[in-house]
Specification:
Length: 355
Amino acid sequence: TTNYYRSQQGGNAPKRIILAGGGANLPYTKEFFEEKLHLPVEFFNPVAAVSVGKGVDTDKLGREAHLMGELIGLGLRATGKSSVNIDLVPTKVQAARLAEKQKPFYIGAAAALLVGLAAWAGLTSVAASKAADESKKMTEQKEQLESVSTPIESQFKKQAQLVGLATQYTNAEADRTFWPELIQEIQHGFASDSVWITDLDPVFNYNPTGSVDDNKKSKSTVKSEFYTLGYGVTGIENIKVEVPAVKGAKPAKGPATGPEITPTANAIRLRGFWRGGEDNPSGSNLIYTLIKNLREKPQHLKFTTTVTDPKTNKKSEVELKDDQIVKQLESAPAASDFAAPFEIVIPLSREVPIK
């Protein structure tokens, strides 16, 4: 025990042995410890710290003094005169004492929790009641407004139908007058005795900045032999507009059942001839001069196009150059010809249905 105390608990070597308790009454206990430990051994005497009454047998008390340590210690602690109070309480007793001390706090916390829950329930009930009242009021207001809004919505629907019908008429009229007005615009810009136009052809799906493959996708909307067709036969090409497929959608089986899309013209192709002479000293450059006249105040023509930046994916309008508009231009007529041919393609200000 001494070695354990010194090695495990870091204690110093004992200098004196004090025997206490009932085990000290065993014969030769004092001599045994003196021989084994080689230290002074004595019996614990707590009576020295207190006064002994006259009626007490001092001899017997002296023989049993080492048995009265707890009794005298409790007496001193009860009087409050002890220098040190040592209470070797078992773990269970200490836990019971601690629980007893903490019981008021637990009770108070539980009471506070119950009060908080009650307050929350009360506030929730009041809020729910107010919300129900507000909902009832709003429902009544909604019913009142619906009695007024329903006729108004009906009139709006009628108005939308009338606007849609009127838009069809106005669009049809705008499409009908577009071509005569375009011809007047071209006549005004190409006012020259040295140039005459022989062919005016609306073009479908034209891309002024496209590649050669893109230009192959553009089509003329008028049949080349339209002047040879008989009465009642249309001179408009039968162009079918392909509907772009939706990403992720499965291709439909069988023929398409939706309404046929009307093709539109987005450019005009002009073919003609120019001649030289005293009235045209600039020669073939006259065509560029006439295109410049059209650029000044375009109404139904457009000399810009929308391009998309491949890096930023932003769209912007850029001006078309003359070489992007002029597709064919002879520098001079042949020796046996009176005039030289030219061909230009100019985008339209809007797409016009071809019917």
